[in-house]
Amino acid sequence: MKLETLQALLADREAKRPVVLVQNLDSGDERLVHPDDTGDPLIASVREAARDDKGGIVDAEGQRIFLNVFNPPLRLAVVGAAHIAQPLTRMAALAGYDVTVIDPRRAFASEDRFPGVSLCHDWPDEAMAAFRPDSRSAVVTLTHDPKLDDPALGIAIRSEAFYIGALGSGRTHAKRKDRLAAEGFGEEEMARIHGPVGLDIGAKSPAEIAVSIMAEITQALRRRVAV
Questions:
Q1: Radius of gyration of the chain (CA)
Q2: Extents of the domains making up the chain
Q3: pTM of the full predicted structure?
Q4: What does the alpha-carbon distance between residue 226 and residue 177 come to, in Å, rounded to a whole number?
Q5: How many CB atoms lie within 10 A of CB 207?
Q6: What's the pLDDT score for residue 199?
Q7: Which tens digits make up the pLDDT trace of 173-209?
Q8: Helix or strand or coil: residue 119?
Q9: What CA–CA distances, in Å, run from 154 to 51, 126, 149, 179, 220?
Q10: 2.60.120.260, 3.40.50.720, 3.40.50.300, 3.30.70.100: which CATH number matches 74-222?
Q11: Residue 86 and residue 28: Cα distance in Å, rounded?
């Protein structure tokens, strides 16, 4: 890799910006391409590779091109340090997510209950504004408390987060939508929320519910339509 390419790659990594190193295996030419770029002849392949977190060799007019993906880490914001959050944060970490638990209630969001997890004790509106959900972020609310869940959801649904989930029954979710509608959110925006959260697998225990949530997050991530 050329020095100037390496320096640019390190700058993208520092900025946590997705980038793909495009290398011509026949000519030795190389360049960096970002998924939000336009005009590059390989942009469709670059976007697919970045979306799938999977590089490889593609053919371009008889030339062998290697795509090497450098994505920032996937992130998960969990609002509410509930019982479900404990197994969920462990599963998400194993799946490669940088996890942040947001809860101003320090007795719940404690090091003892969440060892090794990033904890934020700010109110969810402030915490989510600082978290800044992007296209590699998932957000899950677990508190059942509108004062905590609703502000976080309001920020999430107007962000690029690829997944937004909210704990609660169908009835609870209907009331949640009524509150958000009163705050000016439209049906299309609120449709982004997966509520009740998680795949319908008949989960009962906190660990089983965490499995259903992590499965739905994975489904949302891997079945995204390429731009």
A1: 20
A2: 3-70, 74-222
A3: 0.83
A4: 28
A5: 15
A6: 96
A7: 999 999 999 999 999 999 999 999 999 999 999 999 9
A8: strand
A9: 25, 12, 9, 11, 19
A10: 3.40.50.720
A11: 48
